[in-house]
Give the backbone structure.
Amino acid sequence: MDDITAAAATPVSEQSSYRGSNLISWSEAQSADFGLRPVLARHRLHQLDLFTDSALLDLLENYPRDRLQAFTMGTDVLNRKDWQPVDTAGVSGRDLLTAVGNGRLWFNILQVHLVDRRYRDLIDELYAELSEQCPTFGPLKKNGTLIISSPTALVYYHADAQPNLLWQVRGSKRVWVYPPGDKALVSQDLMEDIFASFADEEAPYEFEFDRKATTFDLMPGDVLSWSQNAPHRVTNLQGVNVSLSTVHETKDSDRRKLVYCANRLFRRSYRIPSRSTKETGALSYVKRLAYRACRRAGLVETPARRAYITNLRIDPNASNGFRLLGGGLVLTEFSKKDFTLKVNASGQVSVVQINHAS
Ligand SMILES: [Fe+2]
């Protein structure tokens, strides 16, 4: 638990109360750019006691494992197939922290605002301040993922459907941000699949894309935001990284989602040559209306949920933070709520979705 323990020795000047003093303070230029182009600004989450080793240990010990994703990855940014789930069965919070400190892991602690009220209050406060400082910003929904990742971890090139902010709390990382809406960077078909949840966020990447990228080195107390759908990739630089990722939806982001989902449905299911990504005007309005009607009528296919199966399990004593399971594939703790594994007479493993409705 080298790095993460060492990082906790940093004096914590202020404890949990942030009432009466803003967590963010954006300049007029930063507020004006928010949502339109990348904005790097400051916050003071790293001064709170929510992110110390002992606070993270408390959180992880009891954190529901069906809301905790663990992954490992390779070192070649071109090879996104190396992104692999890792099981957490029987692994304590302390072992998770030790493994991430010593290994090559990425933990997504999902929906932290639903599990721990203190994070909900924190995210509420952040968005209240953002809305106050960026008067045109109107978030309809928001959610938070706490990310704990190893000193050398990376995240492959991808584009998220909804806008988000990355609040860096501990450790440092480099983020490459690419322009949104460039079909040479992410194809329109793939962006439609991402919006409709038929594809994960990951997209094919080539080194030459970097000519169009802006890079940001994030230190504790930095927050980075970028425009909706702007592709990005991340490489940690130093120390165990603790970051809060917040995702929000707005009227504008929902409108874009409807346009992409409508194009997908009408072009692929009904062979209507619908490709315009215009989000305003009568035609766009009618298209969105028609899509909504199709959705209400049950004409929009629901994407299958993805089961995470693996032959890797967290091991705090292993050099990469995980070990190979001798017995073959297992369903991760994260997927056990929705799936089971079935083994047939010849030993073949298949995944079966649990029907919660029955
Ligand atoms: Fe992302």
Notes: The longest strand covers residues 232-249. The pocket of fe (ii) ion is lined by residues 158, 160, 232 (CB under 6 Å).
